Amino acid sequence: MSDGRSGVAPAPRTIQAWRMDGNDGVVTSCAACGKRNRILRARLQDDPVCGHCKQKIFPRKPVLVTDATWTAQVEESPIPVLVDFWAPWCGPCRAVAPVLDAIAAERAGRVKIAKLNVDENPGSASRFGVQAIPTMILFRGPQQIDQLRGAVPRSVIEERLDRVR
Ligand code: ZN
C-alpha cells in the first residue's frame, strides 16, 4: 500500500460514526439492548448508561465479532477495541481467554474486548495479516495502534492497554 494506510479504507459512514458530530457527541449501539445512543465525547470515559434500557452501554465481557459485524463492532467503536484473533482448536488461545474475560470486566467502558474466530472469518484475519494465533490487535476506530502475538502474560496486555489514552 503506497499511501501508508495499510489498505484500511473506511466507508464514509464509518468516519461519521466515530468522529464527533456537530454537538460533540458520538453515536454507538448499546451492548445490552442494541439501541443507538448518542454520547457526549466528554462523557465517553465515564462508562455511560443506555438511555433505553438503563444498562451500561459498553460491554463487561468479550464480544464476538465477525467479518460481517467488523465495521460496527470495531471501526465504529468510540472506545479502543482489543481484537483477539483465535480458534477453538488453539490451546494457547484457550489459555488467554480467562485473562481477556477479566480484563473486559475490569476495563469495561475504557476498552472493548472482541474475539474473532479466524476459521469462520478468514476475511478479517487475512486483511490484518494474522498468520498465527492468538494474535491480539488493538484498534482505535479503523486504525491499528498496537499488536501482540502469542499467548502473552496478562501483565504485558495490561501494560499495552495502559498506554492507550
Ligand atoms: Zn440499552
Describe the fold and architecture.
The protein is an alpha/beta fold. The chain has a single domain (12-162), classed as Glutaredoxin (3-Layer(aba) Sandwich). Helices cover 27% and strands 22% of the residues. It has helices spanning 12-18, 70-75, 91-106, 122-127, 154-162; strands at residues 25-29, 36-40, 63-64, 81-86, 112-117, 135-140, 143-149. The strands form two sheets. A five-stranded mixed β-sheet has the order 3-5-4-6-7. The chain has a two-stranded antiparallel sheet with strand order 1-2. Residues 1-6 and 9-18 have low confidence and may be disordered. The structure holds zinc ion. Zinc ion binds at residues 30, 32-33, 35, 50, 52-53, 55. Zinc ion (ZN) is lined by residues 30, 32-33, 35, 50, 52-53, 55.
Q: What is the element layout, followed by pairings?
A:
Layout: H1 12-18, E1 25-29, E2 36-40, E3 63-64, H2 70-75, E4 81-86, H3 91-106, E5 112-117, H4 122-127, E6 135-140, E7 143-149, H5 154-162
The structure holds zinc ion (ZN).
Zinc ion binds at residues 30, 32-33, 35, 50, 52-53, 55.
